[in-house]
Amino acid sequence: MYVMRIHLQGTKRPLAVTAATAIAALGIVAPAAAAPADEDRETTAVVDTPAPETDAPAEDTTGEAPAPDETPAVVETETGDADVAPLNTNTEPVTIDILGITDFHGYIENMPFLQTQMDVIRTSNPNTLFASAGDNIGGSAFVSSIAQDVPTLDVLDAMGLDVSAVGNHEFDKGYADLRDRVLPLIDFEYLGVNVDGAPEINTPPYSIVNIDGVDVAFVGTVTETTPTIVAADGIEGLTFQDPVAKTNEVAAALKDGDDANGEADVVVSLFHEGDSVAVGMSEDVDLVFAGHTHIQNVSETVAGAPIIQAGQYGQAFGHATLTVDAEGVVTVDEAAIIELDESVTPDATIQAIVDDAIEQAEVLGAEVLAEITENAYRGTNSGSDMGANRGTESSMGNHLANAALMTVNSTAVGADFGIINPGGVRADMDQDGDGVVTYGEAYSTQPFGNTVGSIDLTGEQVYTMLEQQFQPGASRPVLRLGLSDNVTYTYNPLAADGGDIIDVWIDGVPVDRAATYTVASNTFLLGGQDGFTVFREGTNFRETGIVDLEGYVNYLIAGEADVLPLGQRSIGMQADLTAGKTGTVDLWSLTYTALEEKPTTVTLHLNGTEVGSSDINTDVTPNLDNTGSASVSFAVPGNAPADSELRIVTTFEGGAVDTDVTVPVTVAPAVVPSVGNWFYVSNDWTSTVADTEFSFGRVGDEVLVGDWDGDGDDTFAVRRGTTFYVTNELKGGDAETSFVYGRLGDEVVVGDWDGDGSDTFGVRRGNTFYLMNELKGGKAEVQFDYGRVGDEVFTGDWDNDEVDTITVRRGNTFYVNNELIGGNATISYNYGRTGDMAIAGDYDGDGYDTISVRRGNVFFINNALEGGPADLELAYGRAGDDVFVGDWDGDGVDTPAVRR
């Protein structure tokens, strides 16, 4: 049998204080008549008169265990008394279960079910403890936050919470509120042993529970970044140490054999920071319950101790089973996460507290502010853990940024754009999905009571602000700002820090780095918190006096709730484009993680002309803004200017298309030949002297080879823009035929598509071929899809049937198709190297076209559609020449020509 003796600091109120009592005592009235609460206002909860403090209940001396329906057995909690209980004196192993939650944030409606699930474990093993890794309160659901989180404290007490770390949100209303209001209301220990200047939560730097003769010590710490994510004036005088170092220091003392500084058999870290930080715990720490990042994960410290991070909101709880043997050796037998099961019977006691809080909150929150057809969501990693992914752009974040902009623009100050920090977005817009947004739902999205303000930044500082979203090495490597609709930017997700900002636009105009822009947001963010220190360099800070909730309510009432653009403000991009070459644009961040209908394809338009499209991979990238990726390759026109415009359009299943995003792309100018437009034609591969020399067309023209009149001799044509100029002789002068066909950006192909002996033109657009059987413009006579966008294209008569068809090269693999249709290749083979120049022709006059390669000025001629060594190696021309092959003299053998 084990006995209850609890040593607690401060005066406690009876558990009977309910949400209703607290709400009435706080003087909270219906929203229509109440101004939003001021976070800094001092509020004192009136509670029942506390019962006199007494000694612990008398120890049971009957020698019998209590009956199951009697007061349940509880555990002894030591708080640093000199007479520390002796360490494990058991002769048999003791098994202890420890249950843990984190980042609860007042989601009390989950807890009746969670209590039932945990009671199953408690019934199986009375040696069960219940702990939290922090953020029980603050940033809470409306049902709790509207009552100053008293319902949450009631629920946790009733559930038998033994101990909790403080999270950063426990400091939302300042340490004075935690010390003077919260601590007197609870029957569990709050620990923040790495918070200097706060003796109420760090003295002693542990809480020891003696359970069945085993001393279990809890060491609670909070993220060292707390000063950057809470209001500075609320934690004045406090400093926050490295939580890993402090935990290791306390754990070492607890296991050093010195009773004077406290001793324990088991050390459990309640660590309000991510599991990626907790890995540095020493071997003195037996178990870690982590938190802060709202992610579910089970991992290990470098010393091999389990780390359990149970997510958020009571949607799951951590469960560790450990055994301490007679020699004091601690073994963790199980470390798991148990999901919330709402099919179980809810615990009646907890449900009664929740029902009372709901009843009171419903009165205050029932007012309908807006009717909607599209919901706005926070970021997600799994599709159900809304809010867990703060590294991604979210429709709800952008929605609230719009509200901040409208709020400031309703004053004489005005602003250029609005933003909001992801941690300031605490709920989705329509939380119950009923098509209306109530006051209670609006409250849940922004429960902090920050005021809205503005500050001036230079354009250079706007770039810095966006760069500061990327915080490599932090437990959240990206904190993606919500942005008002009029902001667009591109970034490089492959940069060292994951997000070099490329370009930024406001109202469609590039941001001038030397100009000044006014930013609207909550004063928490404008004060430089959440790592956005650039705001501390801003000027002309102005506070509107309008609380963020009030501004958002006004935004909803104004009818803006249903204005939700589908497209993202941030686009990840890498582009490798050179005029006259095939280039590739890699894209990321094309969709929100939680969008109900995600885009399926992306289409690119270069300088107003569609150049390519691709399917979008919509798999969620956890913790980052890279969800929605695609790669599009296309032929860049030779006349593309150095600053070209790339329009990115994402298309949805239902046909909806997002707002076009315009981004400038630097395009390298085409390489201009060092010598004009002279052609040097040879009828013999072994000759070093050209048989024919002449000038035709202009420097920069696209050159094409074919037998245009069916006489058996190949000649040249040039393309200028979309106009083709054809000559039937190997000489200069005027073209014999000219016509317009295709679009700028099309890739031109040449072949005899109908077997009549005359070559004509076709174009490829994306992976679609449009072929003509006459030298004229108009509608294509043959159309089909083959290969992939980005493949290199060759034409020839591969099977000697007198009809030219298509082959594509991918790397050094050739895919030959003997019909002008889509589908699988007839033949595929590897030849040459990926960087070789490949050229199609009939090199031996047997009627079959094959493909050879050129490396430098050496041709490696292959007379079969297969791999292996070349049949012949010949040098012709110079390495930098433009090279062509054709049957210039009608002998059936293709030979070389160059243009200089």
UniProtKB/TrEMBL annotation:
Domain Calcineurin-like phosphoesterase: start-end pairs = 98-295
UniProt cross-references to SUPFAM superfamilies, sorted A to Z:
5'-nucleotidase (syn. UDP-sugar hydrolase), C-terminal domain (SSF55816), Metallo-dependent phosphatases (SSF56300)
Can you give the residue ranges of the 5'-Nucleotidase C-terminal domain?
383-536
Where on the tree of life does the source sit, at the highest rank?
A: Bacteria
Keywords from the named record: Signal
One Gene Ontology cellular component annotation held by this UniProt entry: outer membrane-bounded periplasmic space
Q: Which GO terms describe its molecular function?
A: 5'-nucleotidase activity; UDP-sugar diphosphatase activity
GO process terms (BP)? nucleotide catabolic process
Database matches in Pfam families: 5_nucleotid_C, Metallophos
Show the segment(s) annotated as Disordered.
33-71
According to the record, the signal peptide region is 1-34
Q: What is this protein called?
A: Bifunctional metallophosphatase/5'-nucleotidase
What organism is listed for this UniProt entry? Answer: Flaviflexus salsibiostraticola
